[in-house]
Amino acid sequence: MGLGPGAVLGAQQLIDRVVARVDGYAVTMSDVRAAIGLGIVDAAIEAVAEDLGVEAVIERQLVLAEVARFAPPEPLPDAVEREAMRLRSHAGAQLAGLMASTGLDEARIREMARDNLRVEAYLNQRFGATVQLTEEEVLQYYRIHPDEFTSAGRLMPFAEAEPEARTRAARERRAAMVGQWHRDLRGRAEIVLTTPRT
Amino acid sequence: MRAAAIAALCLLGVAGSAVAQTAPVITEIRIEEEGRVVADPLITSLLETAIGEPLSMQDVRETITHLTSLNRYEDVQVFQEPADSGPDSGIRLRYVLVPLHPVDRLEFRGLLGLAEDDIRDVIAERFGPAPSAGRVDDVAEALRTLYRERGYVSARITPRIEETHVPDRATMAFEIDAGARASIASVEIDEVDSADRPVAPGDVAVRAGDPYDNAAILEALDRYAADLRARGFYEARAVHTTTFKPDGTATVRVTVDRGPVVTVVFAGDSLPEDDRERLVPVRAEGSADEDLLEDANFAIEDYLQALGYRDAVVDHARAERDGTLVITYTVARGARFVVDGITVTGNGAIAGPELLKLAPIQPGQPYVAASLTTAAAAIRQAYRARGFTRAVVQPVVTELPPDGNSDRDSDGDSDGDADARRVAVRFSVTEGPQTTVGAITFEGHTVLTTAQLEALTPTAPGRPYSENDIVGGRDRIDIEYRNRGYESIVVNPVVTLAENGTRADIRFAISEGTQVIVDHVIIIGNERTSTATIERELLLRPGQPLGYLARIESQQRLAALGLFRRVTIEELRHGGAARRDVLVTVEEAPPTTIGYGGGIEGGTRLRPTGEGGTAEERFEVAPRGFFEIGRRNLWGKNRAVNLFGRVSLRSRDIVLSGSGVRFEQPAEGSGYGFNEYRVYSTYREPRVFNSAADFLLTGILDQAIRSSFNFITREVRAETGVRVGQRYSVAGRYSYEHTKLFDERFTDAEKPLIDRIFPQVRISKFSFTAIRDTRNDVLDPDRGLFLIADNELAARVIASEVGFTRSFLQAFAFSRLPTGRRTVLALGARLGLAHGFRREVPRLGPDDEPIRGPDGVPIVDVVEDQLPASERFFAGGDTTVRGFSLDRLGTDATISPTGFPTGGNGLVVLNSEVRVAVVGSLGAVAFLDAGNVFLRATDLDLSNLRAAAGFGIRYQSPVGPIRIDLGFKLARRELAPGRLERRNVLHISLGQAF
């Protein structure tokens, strides 16, 4: 897929383009690659990673627009630097190549780190860091997901599994709420995936 | 589509790897749009990549952002290609712009089944008149829902976007096959409650055999439910479900729940009939829900408590029997209480009367507990604002024994005042220690200095501590940073109390964040207006901070141009947070405006009547009309030209008999001629010659008929003015004016009056005005200075019939006095000086030939030009010396023995006035004025001023201050032996005197 060092390109190459427009904001191929390379969007399935990446960057853009409307407290500089370090470490040895190929610079990485923290703060502000569940709801989660509480062929008693079941149920509930919010954002936005044509 | 994106991303992977190696140098850049090379300067100016520079993906990315910001392009593709001159000579960068094709048409093809207008209305209501192409599937889905609701359950709708070019537009087209419309096969009615009488099939107006139409069914059911509610079934509901069958029919099942007949009755103390429906809105809400009934309890109690029934208790009970629900409200008003007196105790730092002004209650008013709470909070807030952070204010209410005196009860309630109980209200204040500001410190600031921050803080060490000051300081610091582009500024005031709460140390913790700088300013939407005209109004410039105030002011300045229907300024993020593009989108207004109108005017006119043609007033009506046309934004530079014409007609002069019979026919066939016409044209050019000055050229042609003369006026004015900073402005003007009277029918005594308004000489003059204005309010200032210097020069060499110079200097000062009420001292001084030029005039004989001297040389007299009456100074009246009627002030030389003013070349007017706010919008003034008008400027004599004193009232109306002044002359002149001037003069007018 890559070319050798100093190789001369013999034909035209598409180096960047708009892959989507979100309420008029352009999402480019380089944005998607940068987001994947830094681990900002979770594109775990390799085969369709970049396809998922486009969707994830669109979603991130929608969320950032909301964050800008109802701004959470500004993250502390130290926290931004730690998050930026985490992003860089995700790219690892590929960081230099990723930066050159996508036009990333240090300021942009810090900005992405800041955005990550702001999104997290916004979600905590809007949906709470933890979701309070009733005993019945935890029990229901335990019943629906017995495999998660089965060890060595033995299903843990609810009393023993309850703390873990509560954590997992809360996480699932929060994810469902955030997911629904994302769907609502999409429903309100104008999203155009652009088809390559010349 | 997704596959395409993946493919493109894979290609990017290749290119990315290439760029990651040694970046090739750009030797050529080409921009293409639909196969054409683009050389538009707006586009090329947005390129971040440059020939001769190594390829940078960051520059490519930013270029894409700039270009897409224009809202012209759907896609911007960037290709890297070998340069034509060889593989080792660098690369060519090719930008391929794929234009957006905004939808400007909706088309519906095929068998629609529904009226096309109905379809368009549904789309417009939900998506606007021109939905974007990206919403085409949503629009199609909305249409499917529409068709289904109208009974076309098998309608097929296929959407398509059809693009057209030059211009780039698109049509949103729908191929529609409506199919067969379902008809209602049967209507089934379920009745939840049929105790009264069953619902007859015809009652709900949904009939078998009708075409299915969901909206029509809903409307019919709403009507039916409304009818039931009108008959007392306040909770009536009628809903339906529909089942479509394969044979193209529909079964409609209507469920009717009438609920009981609801009756609301009141027991106990009475409530006014008119208020019952409002307080218990069972009928209006169509509900007898328990929550609503409970809310009504509270509403009635609040209503009664507002009338002084402190202990009012309301309860309700439901009783249902035989299909009737009776809701009984039992009202126990209790005694009515009236405030007898209000006092404040325990106060030391703030005077009692000042505190009582904060309380929204007065003796004699009904006692309302909520008002006391509000008043206590207001008093406490007053203390907190003065540093008494621990002040406690407790309202204490004491019921007074009845004394048989109910004179103070004033609410007009017929049933309660005589029996009302009186309460004394006392606000018990515990002030606590006063807190003063100790130290004020700032931390985290690098942009603003401590001195700058201190200047923004409205408090200082030693002053009383006030939370309002702290919040105000925080906000001012915040906005100052935002004006400098620090959009994520956070200012957190931390207050530490010390020394038993008597000292407050304030620390403002500042997190400045990143300064945002304007990268590019992109202006779109201007087709007729030049970009330079827009840029001139923008306070946001590339490389400068993206300031909050600059953005708002830029938007206001653009709107003030009057060229645009809409102006938006958006920030576009790209790259890091520190740089933003500013996108200015304008929607231009139509360049040409046309106005016209017409009407009829009526009035009395003098007419020659009878055989002798004696003048007699007659009421006549005549048509009139106007037309105006304006063109703005000429040549894209915001220049404007306007032409206004007005004409009114009148019946021609004819001689009538005493009974109105015409003696003579008009000379021409028509019965109407011109009464007056006026043509007024202007040309305006802002920022003439790229300066800060505005230029205005005006031409006026005016002819009209008056009762005792006719006139025609021609006038041309050219003026330019400029503001210098916030306080100064200067203006220069040239004017040429000539008025000619004809058909004169006035006496010599009336001539000066007419000359005053219609000078019958040609005046050509230059004038210059300089103004310094530091007033805080133009209409009603209480602080500042207003200075005006106005100079005029008319001369024969510039085609004036008379030559003169004239200066008029005015100075006004306003100062608010340190009193509790708003009291303003206003002072004014006006000085006018004019001088007619001398000239030589040959002496003429009876035959109009020059008279010659013994030496044969014509004898020449030196005369001084007299200023026309319109240019002379006059005084007296509501804005000068108020003890005199308009223009009736002057020396013996400028007032005739009969009291008639002739004006003069010298003027002095001095004014002093004290303006006091009395109550609400009402104010009072006392004034002392002095002044005089002198025949010549050299006659000015400050010891020969005439004075007047008086008083007046002011009312701040929505249209400005209404003024009534009564002025008294301090010394009256004897006009004729035994005949003194009037002592006083009453003036009624709008606005302050000066």
Q: In words, what does this structure look like?
A:
The complex is a heterodimer of chains A (198) and B (994). Chain A has 198 residues and is mainly alpha-helical. Chain A folds into two domains: 16-127, Triger factor/SurA peptide-binding fold; 130-198, no CATH class. Chain A is 59% helix and 10% strand. The longest helix of chain A has 31 residues, at 158-188. Chain A is elongated. The model of chain A is unreliable at 1-9 (pLDDT under 50). Chain B has 994 residues and is an alpha+beta fold. Chain B has nine domains: 17-99, Roll (Ubiquitin-like (UB roll)); 103-177, Roll (Ubiquitin-like (UB roll)), CATH 3.10.20; 183-257, membrane protein fhac (Ubiquitin-like (UB roll), Roll), CATH 3.10.20.310; 261-332, Roll (Ubiquitin-like (UB roll)); 337-430, Roll (Ubiquitin-like (UB roll)); 436-511, Ubiquitin-like (UB roll), CATH 3.10.20; 517-588, Roll (Ubiquitin-like (UB roll)); 592-759; and more. In chain B, 18% of the residues lie in helices and 42% in strands. Chain B has 16 helices and 42 strands. In chain B, the strands form ten sheets. A 16-stranded antiparallel sheet of chain B has the order 23-24-25-26-27-28-29-30-31-32-33-36-37-38-39-42, with no helix packed on it. Chain B has a four-stranded mixed sheet with strand order 2-1-4-3, with helices on one face. A three-stranded mixed sheet of chain B has the order 5-7-6, with helices on one face. In chain B, a hairpin with a 2-residue loop joins strand 36 (906-919) and strand 37. The longest helix of chain B is centred in the first third of the chain and has 19 residues, at 2-20. The radius of gyration of chain B is 42 Å and the shape is extended. Strand 1 of chain A pairs antiparallel with strand 3 of chain B.
